[in-house]
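queue> pop job 88
queue> type: inverse folding (structure -> sequence)
queue> payload:
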């Protein structure tokens, strides 16, 4: 393990941190498509091994944003999905990677699980969802993890209102 980066191959670095060579290459050459957590891991390992090159800054990597929209086939959501894609394209892949996930409005459990999963690998979330205790809990977890969430529906819980709704006594 005393090998320096000057003599260490990308394969050895990838093996050391448990990722693929393509992942190391994408991080070091700022090609995107790698989660923020894995990006930090690769850059820390490269710095620790003394890589003799200018390493990319974590904050310069593309923002990874997940957009959760209703999975119904209405014209509104079809258009909204396309509008989000157009915005991401106009900003360029080096600035923003937009991930779109369609979830049926009748599946709040699936939405909550998806929010929690995405909050561990995305910089921010945009959520269209129905009010449901599991969704509120998922949004609370995002807030605790300092993952910004933008509600995409009028009246949908914002970060400030989540804690008051969760703290309110339940009837019954």
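queue> result:
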């Amino acid at each position: 393990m005393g090998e320096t980066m000057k003599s260490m191959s990308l394969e050895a670095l990838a093996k050391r941190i448990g990722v693929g060579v393509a992942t190391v290459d994408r991080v070091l050459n700022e090609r995107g498509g790698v989660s923020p957590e894995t990006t930090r891991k690769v850059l820390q390992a490269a710095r620790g091994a003394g890589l003799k090159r200018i390493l990319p800054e974590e904050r310069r990597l593309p923002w990874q944003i997940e957009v959760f929209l209703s999975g119904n086939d209405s014209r509104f959501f079809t258009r909204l999905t396309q509008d989000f894609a157009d915005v991401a394209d106009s900003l360029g892949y080096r600035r923003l990677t937009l991930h779109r996930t369609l979830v049926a409005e009748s599946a709040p459990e699936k939405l909550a699980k998806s929010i929690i999963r995405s909050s561990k690998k995305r910089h921010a979330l945009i959520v269209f969802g129905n009010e449901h205790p599991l969704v509120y809990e998922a949004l609370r977890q995002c807030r605790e993890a300092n993952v910004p969430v933008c509600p995409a529906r009028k009246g949908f819980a914002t970060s400030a209102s989540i804690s008051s709704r969760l703290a309110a006594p339940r009837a019954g």
